[in-house]
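ASSEMBLY PREDICTION REQUEST
Request ID: AP-0331
Submitted by: J.K., bench scientist
Number of chains: two
Total residues: 816
Priority: normal
Notes: Please return the full assembly, not individual chains.
Input sequences:
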Amino acid sequence: MKRRLLLAAVAALLLATAACGGGSSSSEASTKTGGTLTIGMSLDATSWDLAKAGDGNDAVYNQPVYDSLLRMAPDGSLTPNLATKWVYDDKQTTLTLTLRDGVKFTDGKILDSAAVRANLLHTKGGNAAGSELTGIAEVTAPDANTVKITLSEPDPSLLSALGQVPGMIASPDALDATSGPVGSGPYVLDKAGTTAGRQYTYTRNKDYWNASAFPYDKIVILPMTDPAARFNALSSGQVDWTTISADRVDAAKGAGLTVATTPGATEGLYIWDRDGKIVPALKSPLVRQALNYAFDRAAIVKTVRKGLGTATEQSFLPGDAAYDTSLDSRYPYDLAKAKQLLAQAGYPNGFDVTIPDLSANFPQEQAAINQALADLGVKVKTVPVPLNQLFTALQGGKYAMSYFKLSAVGPWDIVQNEFLKNAAWNPFHTTDPKVDELVKAIAAAKVDAQPALFRQLNTYLVEQAWNAPWDVLDTVLAMNKKVTMAAQKTTVFPPIYSLKPAG
Amino acid sequence: MVMFLLRRVLAGLVLVLVVATLTFALLNLTGTDAARNILGENATPEQAAAEAATLGMNRPLPVRYWDWLSHAVRGDLGTSWFKGEAVTSSLASTLPITLSLALAGLLLSALLSVGLGTAAAVRGGRLDRAIQFLAVLSSAAPSFLVGLLLAVTVAVKLRWLPATGYVSFTDSAGGWLRSITLPAIALAIAATGGTAQQVRGSLIDVLGSEYIRLLRSRGISERRVVFKHALRNAAPAGLTVLSLQFIGLIGGAVIIEKIFGLPGVGSLANFSAVQGDQPVVLGVVVVTAAIVVLVNLLIDIAYGWLNPKVRAA
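STATUS: Completed
Returned structure:
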C-alpha cells in the first residue's frame, strides 16, 4: 500500500510540475518593439574587462552593455556611433574623432574624450581584442569632444577595429569591471537574472541615446557548448537564434526555422614552404600553380561542405576590399594542365613531400588532398598529427604544406596574419619584394585608395599561387520565425542591432 | 566500527592522491598547447611562448607538481588559465548541479530497481520475464542515446519539459524539478537494469530460505515478510551494485550535461580538458575522486549498519 502511494505521489508531482511552471523562457508575441530576444552561444563570455575580452564570440556578450566608437553596418561599412566624425591626416598616422554630445554611462559619468582615451589605452594593453590596437602610439584629448589617436605606422584595419570590441567604451571608473560591466550601451546587465556560465540577462537602459535602434526590451544569452543541446533549445523554442552545424541545416529547415550563413573560414591546401627549404619544388610558382589546378573546388564545396561555402582561389573574402571576382576563374580544375606545368618546372615525375595526416578531424579534406597529389604523381608521406599539436607543429615549420583553414577576417588582418615576414601564419617567413611594396603602399594610402591596391596585391598573390585555397566555408546560423536578421558579410556573429522581431 | 572507518578513510585519501598524480602526469604528456589556445589562432610562436612563460609552464615538472600539491592540500586549487576565475569558485557553482543530477538519478534508479526487482521476485511468471527483458535492454542502452531520444521526443516534439538549461532549487523548486527530470531519467535508466537484476536475484534467494518459511508459517502477512524481513537481507547486494553504479552515474552525468546544456562539472571538465586548462582539470578530478570515495564510504557504513557481521571485518 505504502509503496503504491509513494509511486503515485512521485508521478503526480512530476505531472504537476510539468503542467504548471509556465512555458519556456523566451519571447512574447512579436511586435515592432518590446519582447525578449534569447540567443544561444557556443562559448561562454570571457570577461567584461575589455582588455581581456576577445573579438568574435565576446562581442555578442559585450554589445548590449557597451557602445563602440563606430558602428559596423552589415556590409562592413562604418557609420557614426559614439563618434560622429572621423578623419585621418595625410600621413594616415593621426586619426581625429569627434564625439557625440550628451552620452552618459549608467553610473552617471559623462562619456567624453578623457573616458575614450582611458579606454583605448587600457584595452590596448590586453592580449586578445587589444592586439588590434597595438599600432596606437598615443591618444590625446585636446577638448572634451575630440580624441586624437596617433599611430606608430599606418593601420588600415584600425577603423573597423573601432567598430568592434577594441572600440568599446566602458566607464573609466569600471575599466576592470570587477563588479560587472558599466557602459553607455542600449542595455544594462541584470545581475538578478545573470549567473556566470549559465545565463546572462540584459534589460533596457532607459536613458540610452539611440533607443529606437534596439527593438527588444530584454536580451537573454545562454551559453551552451553542445551543438545538439543548442539545436534542441532552438527547436523547442527556448532560444530564438543560435549557430548550428552544417549537417543540421536540413533538419532546421524541416522544423520551420530560418537558416542564414556568414563567412566562416578560408580552407584549402596551404603551401607554407614557398622558399623551398624542405621541398625545393615548391619554390617554383609553376609548381604551386599546378597544385591550384589539381583541385575541383566546385565539387569540394558541393560534397564536403554540402553547398555551404563559396569556391574561390583567393585568400580574401568575397565582398571585401581585396576580392576580385575575375580571379575566381584563374585556376579551373585541369589535371592535364597541372601535369604540364610540373613538367615545365622540371618535375615531370612529381616530387616528394611529407604532410600532416588530419583525417581524424578532417577526413574528407585530407582525402581530397591525398587524391589530388596522387593524381599529379606527387609522392606523399603522411604523418598523423593530433589536432592539439597541429598549430605548434605548423608554426614551427615542420611541414611544407598541409590542409588548413583560417578564420574569416578583414583584408588587412589577413595580410598581417599570412603575408608579412613574421606573420603568425607564414611559418617559413617567406617574403617577396612586390608583396612588401604593395603592403607598404596600402598602409600609406588614403582609405578610398586602398581597395584598388588590395586588389593588386590579391591578383599578385593568386598569380604567384602563394596558397591553393579551395573555398570560404560558411558558418550557419538558424533562428525561429519570430526573428529576422540583416545579412552579414563581415562578422561571424551579427551585432545585436541586426536582429529584429519579425512582422 | 571506528577502525573500519579509519582504514577506509585513509585508503580513500591515498586513492585521491594517486588519481591526482596520474592526471597531472597525463595532462603534461598530451602536448596540448594551452598558451596557444588562450591566445587564439593568430598568435605567433613568440607570443605563445611568452604566454606559456607567464603561466609558469617552463618550470620543471616536479617543481610544478609540488607547487600545485602544496597549494591543493591547503584548499587552494589555483586559478583557471583561461578565465582567471578561482578553481574553487568554479567548482562551487558547478558541482551542486552535477551532484543534484547524479543524486536525482541515483534516487530514481534506487526506487525503480527496488520496485521492479521486488515485483519480479515476488510475482514471478510473465511479469518477471518482462522485467528481466527490460533490465537487459536498459543496461544495453547508452545513457546519452536515451537522453537524446528523450530530449527530441519529450522536449522538442511534445514540449512537456525544457530541452536545455538548469534552474537552481533556490530560484524555483518547480523549475528545478522540470529542468532535472529528463536528465535524471536518462541517467537512471542506464543504472536501473543491473541493480534491479541484483535485487531480484538476492530477493529470490532470501525468500527461499528457512527463516522466511518460518515467518510465513507463523502467519505473518506476505507484505510484511517481503518488506520488513526479506528486503533487509537482500538489500546489501543491491547497495553494492548501486555504489558501483554511482561512479558510472558521475561519468554519465558529464555526457548528459552536454546533451541537456546543464552547466555542471561535466561541462567544465570537458571544456577545460580540450583547451588544456590544467588547474581546472586537476581541481575537477581531485574533487570528483573525493566525492566518489566519500559516497562509497557512506554506502560501506550503510552496509555495516544493515549487516552487523561486516563491522567486525
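REVIEWER COMMENTS: The first helix of chain B runs from residue 2 to 29.
SIGN-OFF: pending second reviewer
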